[in-house]
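Let us practice reading a record.
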Amino acid sequence: MILRYRLFGQTGLRVSEILLGTMVLDDADEARRILDVYADAGGNVLDTASAYGDGETLLGSIIERRDRFVIGTKYTLSRDRSDPNGAGNHRKNLTLSLERSLRRLRTDYIDIYWVHIWDRHTPIEETMRALDDAVRAGKILYIGISDAPAWIVSRANTLAEWRDWTPFAGLQVPYNLLRRDIERELLPMAESFGMSVAAWAPLERGILAGATAPKRSDPGKLTERERAAAQAVAKVAGDLGVRPAHVALAWMRAKSRAVLPLVGVSSAEQLTENLAAIDVALPPDAVRRLDEAVEFEAGFPNDFIAECEPSPFVFGDTATQVEGRVPA
């Protein structure tokens, strides 16, 4: 079980095909075991955030091979709830949050610095310029954005292109069989810009992991939609002789090469089980069965454009004879 690597967005940074989320780590000894298992499998991306309690401090205290890891952390969320400037994507909060993260992580640079969530009150121009200044100062190497609408990410990267600023190389969003919203705008946008997509909540609170997460998902409290998804995943897993979690992760990876599952674990054993998903390749029929098990509509304009594309009325008599663009 050895992880392979993908390039992070339009950069030369090599990142493992499964990312490790550290949000739930709270025991130093177990955290060391988890990092050892991950590193031994070839994993190199550790994801944290300034708002994850003592998560940054814990991570900083246990990393022994700092330069072998790609450390990502985030800013935006409040440092001080009584301070109006203690949160947001403006330059002041970025500067103070970054300095605090560097101290907590015991490092002089952050590999990937993520905007944690879109701040409606800060001009995206200010955020992008402040991030670029931090890159030029050597305090961060690459940047990404989490939990933001496609139009704001597109505007940010277009501004970066025009003004020779550092663009977002990664997008961090929730994605799984039950939460496919990113397929409407965010995933196509990321693919168009060549961005990597760090997909959090890949198992949807354990619902898609079947019996491996009974404490997180009480079967009696599942909705009909959740139950249908869990049953479909379990059926495919039974047919293939693998774990439901493997199927759920393999489904995500089959949908787009841009997608990198971001798994959060609380034990080394749980991580070992999740990493085994890299050896599972779903046949096209299995992907189709999973897609059809849970209702999802791309909605307007996606569905409308798809219906119009083969129409002679819209694109002429040769509409069905045009081949798609060859990837660069």
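A brief commentary: The radius of gyration is 21 Å.
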